[in-house]
Known about the structure:
Blueprint: E1 2-7, E2 13-17, H1 22-31, E3 39-42, H2 48-58, E4 63-67, E5 72-76, H3 98-104, E6 111-114, H4 127-135, E7 139-145, E8 148-154, E9 163-165, H5 171-181, E10 187-191, H6 197-209, E11 212-215, E12 221-224, E13 232-235, H7 240-252, E14 256-260, H8 268-276, E15 280-284, E16 287-291, E17 296-297, E18 301-303, H9 315-322, E19 325-332, H10 343-348, E20 352-356, E21 375-380, E22 389-390, H11 394-406, E23 410-414, H12 417-422, H13 426-432, E24 436-444, E25 450-455
Amino acid sequence: MEVLKITGGIPLKGSVKAAGAKNAITKMLVASLLSDKKCIFYNVPNITEVEMTLELCQEIGLKSSWDREKKILEVITRDLRSSYIPQKFSGANRIPILMLGALLGRTESDIIVPTTGGCKIGLRPVDFHIAALEKLGASIEYRVMKKEGAYFARAHEGLKGCMIHLPYPSVGATENTILAACRAKGSTVIRNAAIEPEIMDLILFLQKLGAHIHVDVDRTIYIREMQEAYEVEHTVLADRIEVASLGMAAISTKGRVFIEGAEQSTLVSFLNKLREIGAGFEIKQNGIEFFYKGELRGGMHVETDVHPGFLTDWQQAFVVLLTQAKGCSVIHETVYENRFGYASTLRKMGAQIELFTQCLGGKDCRFSSQNYFHSLIVKGPSILKAQNTSIPDLRAGFAYVMAALTAVEESIISNVHYLDRGHEEIDQKLISLGANLIRASSVLNNKNEEKKILFSSKM
């Protein structure tokens, strides 16, 4: 098991380059299965989530060549070797369910995919996915296989375009419907669709691939059947979650960090909140610089929402930032019902946080009266102290790292593999910015207690 040893209290300073977006490249790899043409991706992040998605697609015939140093990935799926995704991928991440949309239009064989997974941040229901695909003409059923669940899908008579209205602008359901609609006969209209930057990047990729697709201003996506496929070269957009995370780490440690490749257009709601609390940022020609410019102001309200609202994956690190701001602030989580699991660790580190089951927001959300802790109040400024802890999920993991960078003395953080899923070489990036951080191997005794840590020389 690997751990991070972090001694905080050092301002982060310097510059780093933004990695490609995990939530874009993984979906485009699945989308490449729509055709038998070569696709070349640039700015591909070297993270385990990409590795898992490649392995998943290779099961059915995708061939790949990945230059990790140059961040170039070339893929092609000339023929489908299978339409069965083994149960070993059950719960690995959220990608398997998207294989339905990608494969329904390319094969008449039955498609079998395992249940979805990923970080434990709340339920990830797929009923919106299933309802949309069935409306396009697919037949889908859930069965138990080898004591685990799987979805069986087929469209023996082909898919047919239609009008689809999503009850909620779900990112995954929108992506799945788009993929299926590209191969459906005629035209498809998706209303109340998600329009996240990663989805827009997927749409740009699909247009290059041969799809006839465009987005209207009212969350409506129009798609016509793809008649011909083309070879594609595509550069993955910068990861807005990593950019915001590193920016907040710079501010909370009272430092100054320039992030090359950061895109203002994907960060508008986040940057507005930084201005509200008095944090500094400057938009440059080729990126964004984040910096501490004086006492941070609390007394604000943040409500997570689908794009263009405040991203749910920003709120964990933002809560850490608010522990350093003067006054009380409110966070209302409306996307996932179980995203505040990290709060107990922050409280052990000295954060003043209270959780609530009520909707502390401008409107009631889907979790109103369901007894989920989905609102919190954080009071600052607080002096955070070191804590040895274990990461429960990807985004909470960076919140712990950021808190440790802000805290006094030494913290040891385990379950680093969660960070590796979505952050490219995050330890090396932080070290390059001056962080006192070492990645190390931990030796455990028979009682599974930490016995000894063998530190590497990465400094």
